[in-house]
Amino acid sequence: MNLIKMFLWCVAIFLLAAGCSTDGLNSDSNNDTSLDQTVVDLAQTSGQLASGTSFEIVGSSSDSAAAINCRPGPNGRRGNGRHNGILDGLSLLAPTDELLAIVDAESASDFRGLRISKSGGATITNYNAAGETVSLPISATDGPQGCSFSGHQFPVYDSLLATIAKTVIDFGSGVTFRRDTVKITRSGKIVITRSVSGATKTEVTTFDNYKVNGIGIAGTKTRVSTFDSSTGSGTSTTSVADGKITLADGTVATWTSEKSRVSDITLDETTLKPTSGTITTTVDAKVVTTDGTVIYSHKTNAPLVENVACGNRRRGPVSGKLETVYRTDTVQVDFGDGTCTNKTITITFNGVTSTKTIGE
């Protein structure tokens, strides 16, 4: 039995114990074909990591519509039985420690990563070029998600980041986050340094003895971004050097990650915020052990395209194809035909295709 199906049995037992109805968890109320919830979770999170956008797939663990089927738990809140609610507000789901470590590694220097660290109890300190401490507001859900310098997609945050030369995310000897039955312990530091030279912005992220639930993450992630406001064109390339993930049992895996984002957008003359255009992303990330075993990978078989003009009408990529491998399972997602009105995506799990929808 593959890992995803094994985990699904655990999920079912947990949901029964938590007093949650399973109605809506594999919902077909939106004409979706029933699909293992954990498969949907994996498709959602890998899609977010790859594209840098935030979205929910109907039927995932973070689907707010499904959460209403849960009876209130001991503290009165609904949704207490959601097995993947460990990264609330971000729609990033990590049903195993391996996937949790990959989420931390891939998103460490993004705004999404800063939010994860803040909610996880880290001390976050920002310094300007003179070494003075400065403030960087981190909102709960608004603003940039899976990007830092955003190519003017979020100009206010870009301006703030340009004044911050260094960010230190410090979990010390260990900080534990608990929510219901979920427990995450992080230790060590993540250090982000930034420099600006003309239109080019460079960010370098390193991990200082960093661990999450006993899994160590090491390596240097470098992101180089450029943007020309006169043309609305920009690029962002991210790469990982000397990446390594050491599992709790001592197994060492090589972590490689390459991402390219190309912006071609039109800016409002007054607000300088984007009103139309596209952001196109290609990505290839892998976590592979020394014997060649693939623990995790995601890659674009066709570039992921975000239509800025869609706004909240269609979250996430409007087109593109992403393939994710987790151990022995393969999940492929086709994000659609490129239009804002189409909310149907197809998910192919080990050769079997189902349809799902992107939530509001």
Automatic annotation (TrEMBL):
<feature type="signal peptide">
    <location>
        <begin position="1"/>
        <end position="17"/>
    </location>
</feature>
<keyword id="KW-0732">Signal</keyword>
<protein>
    <recommendedName>
        <fullName>Lipoprotein</fullName>
    </recommendedName>
</protein>
